[in-house]
């Protein structure tokens, strides 16, 4: 019966719990004091007196599978897209653009439109699916090169 009074194998966890609680309190106090570097832009609600059936002034740039480009349903040559967008966005406060491309297009072809848009002074770019006909399901792709 030698093993009855052997080494005690229990771990005393009380000091560990005390340290854990002190660290928890420190992080809870220090967390609200932390400054965030990135500004957060929250969308503003629409004014209540605006009618529901009015459409906002949107600019949609589209590219089909045969590489035809349309700007708000009007066909345009790819070489004329940049000067046209520069002329449009130089006088606008709202610098948002929607790009819609066919899903079968290579990514690089749609990226050319995105690059042209950024050079033209567009602020925010949203990419649309071919199935979306309005901007309600737009996925924002804010990009700074």
How would you characterize this protein structure?
It is built from 3 helices and 6 strands; from the N terminus they run H-E-E-E-H-E-H-E-E. The longest helix has 17 residues. The protein has a domain of 81 residues: Nucleotidyltransferase, domain 5 (2-Layer Sandwich). Helix content is 29%, strand content 16%. The C terminus is likely disordered. By secondary structure, the chain is an alpha/beta fold. It is elongated. A hairpin with a 2-residue loop joins strand 2 and strand 3. A 6-stranded mixed β-sheet has the order 3-2-1-4-5-6.
Provide mean pLDDT, rounded.
76
Q: Which class of one domain in CATH terms?
A: Alpha Beta
Q: Write the CATH fold name of one domain.
A: Nucleotidyltransferase, domain 5
Uncertain spans: 50-54, 132-145
SS strand fraction: 15-25%
Question: What level of helicity do the residues show?
Answer: 25-40%
Number of alpha- plus pi-helical segments? 3
Shape: elongated
Which CATH architecture of one domain is right? Answer: 2-Layer Sandwich
Strand order of the largest sheet: 3-2-1-4-5-6
* Annotation, overall tally of beta strands: 6
Largest sheet: 6 strands, mixed
Distance between the termini: 77 Å
SSE map:
Layout: H1 14-30, E1 60-63, E2 69-71, E3 74-76, H2 78-89, E4 96-101, H3 107-119, E5 124-128, E6 139-140
Parallel strand pairs: 1-4, 4-5
Antiparallel strand pairs: 1-2, 2-3, 5-6
Short structural description:
The chain has 3 helices and 6 strands. It is α/β, with parallel strands linked by helices and 145 residues long. A 6-stranded mixed sheet has the order 3-2-1-4-5-6.
């Amino acid at each position: 019966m030698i093993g009855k009074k052997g080494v005690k194998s229990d771990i005393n966890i009380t000091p560990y719990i005390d340290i854990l609680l002190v660290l928890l309190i420190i992080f809870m106090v220090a967390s609200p004091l932390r400054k965030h570097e990135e500004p957060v832009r929250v969308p503003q609600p629409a004014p209540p007196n605006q009618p529901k059936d009015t459409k906002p002034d949107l600019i949609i740039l589209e590219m089909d599978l045969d590489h035809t480009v349309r700007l708000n349903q009007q066909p345009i040559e790819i070489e004329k897209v940049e000067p046209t967008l520069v002329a449009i966005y130089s006088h606008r406060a709202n610098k948002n653009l929607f790009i819609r491309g066919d899903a079968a297009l290579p990514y690089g072809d749609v990226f050319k439109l995105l690059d042209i848009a950024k050079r033209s002074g567009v602020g925010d770019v949203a990419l649309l699916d071919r199935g979306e006909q309005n901007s309600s399901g737009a996925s924002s792709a804010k990009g700074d090169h």
